[in-house]
Amino acid sequence: MKKTIAAIFIFVVLLVAAPLAYAQEPVIKVYIDERQVQFAEQPVNVEGVTMVPFRPIFETFGIQVSWDEEKRAVTGTKQKWSISLTIDQEQAIVNGETIMMPEAARMINGHTFIPLRFVGEATGRTVGWDDTSKTVKIVSTLRSDLIDILYSNDLKYEGDMKGDNKEGKGKYYYRNTLWYEGDFKANRMEGIGKQYDPQNPKSYYEGHYLDNLSNGKGKLVFDDGSYYEGDFKEGSREGIGKLYDKTGKLKYEGGYAHDSREGKGKYYNTDETLFYEGDFKAGVQHGVGKLYNKGKMIYEGDFYEGKQTGKGKIYRSDNTGILWYEGELRDANRHGQGKMYDNTGRLAYEGQFKSNNQTGKGNVYYSNGQTYEGEVYGGKPEGIGTLSDVSGKVVSAGYFENGAYKSPRPDEQAEHYKVMTLKKQFTQQVIDGLMPNSYGLDSSEAIMVMELPTKEALLQFQQLSDSAKKQVINSYAQDNWGNVLGVKHCYAKVKYQGLVYAEADISYKMVDESVKLDVYTEGK
């Protein structure tokens, strides 16, 4: 939806600025719609109320400010909009209505100061305070844009009147284009009405109004033909509603707050089959929920900011309903403590996971009844551990390599041992070209960052031969190719504390000897 109508349905709750120490605190920075305001006299704290200079802020809004020395009063006007206040008085007159300020306007070093919170109340903007950076953010909102239109010289009314008040049926034209038609009461849009985007008449809201804003039941149609039906409050989608695509297919049903999906809800695929049901926050899955594929649940558990993070259960993708994994997840990856099951539902592994890989300490349960307990990599015994038969009798104990018993103790000078020691320590970050990125990657490319945890691990890597370095990078990328599945080039980088110490362009099933490796001894 274009700016005019979109603005009319977004409202952010006013935040009250936190108290500031009067003289000792750092300089307070004030931003209006991301642009910093420069002051000759800095904002201050007066008895717990943040006070800001009147003129530079209101002039940024396009308001003409004047001063009456005799009355010690300041006024501001913008077309039909007006404000006036008097020094040492708590009352301000905004468009003919009296508003009480939390602290009286006052003169400080020849400049008029007003309470920060009043800036939002007078102009319809939100005022946010970041105590850490001592920053104020004043942001345009639905109310401020609405005020600009309602008090514009470009707004014309035609319709019923009762005395000097607009009352009954009427129409507003903004810049000679129909903007609103419907009920009026006491000069306000109130009752049933329809409001258009002057730049795109296909975009509109129709429903209930109160005090110039959509309130109650209504329908909001976007310029692409999709639409929302449900509850509104103070101009925003708030309450329970449904969102449909342009063909009328249901996309979402559930709670809304501040114009975003919030609370309990359900999200549907384009074929109207259920995709997700559960908690939403700020428009994305957040809390507890379930994911579905072709009508079958494939995940249930925790979500954080749109991704499976926390504890959950993943079911097999073949729609058999058999549990595949249960345990901890991070950003939709198996990470932490968990359990894996085979295609019959039998427990096959329990223990530690790293970036979807069974790596760390764990138990491997074999179909013949044997159990391995110890160090693992990729779900196989790798390191020190014990293999027992179905009765619990020890079959072999010591060092395991590639899933099989090797010797009582490892040869710590062996290349395989050194390579596996490093691979077990890597933590992984993947940047996939399928997603928006700042690296110029396309859908056939990805970056896999292999982060070393300690200085000691970095030294271990640097002491490897070139062939062993290639093996570490290539084999780790191949082991974790499922995290970059479908790409032609995986740019693998070994990093420590933000510096790259080696990198290579890896392709799927590449052999170690084919890897072209760039090594940076000092890091880059």
Automatic annotation (TrEMBL):
Domain Copper amine oxidase-like N-terminal, chain residue ranges per copy: 32-138
Keywords: Repeat, Signal
InterPro entries the record matches: Cu_amine_oxidase-like_N (IPR012854), Mao_N_sf (IPR036582), MORN (IPR003409)
Residues of the signal peptide: 1-23
SMART domains associated with the record: MORN (SM00698)
Family annotation (Pfam families): Cu_amine_oxidN1, MORN
Protein name per UniProt: Copper amine oxidase-like N-terminal domain-containing protein
Phylogenetic lineage: Bacteria, Bacillati, Bacillota, Bacilli, Bacillales
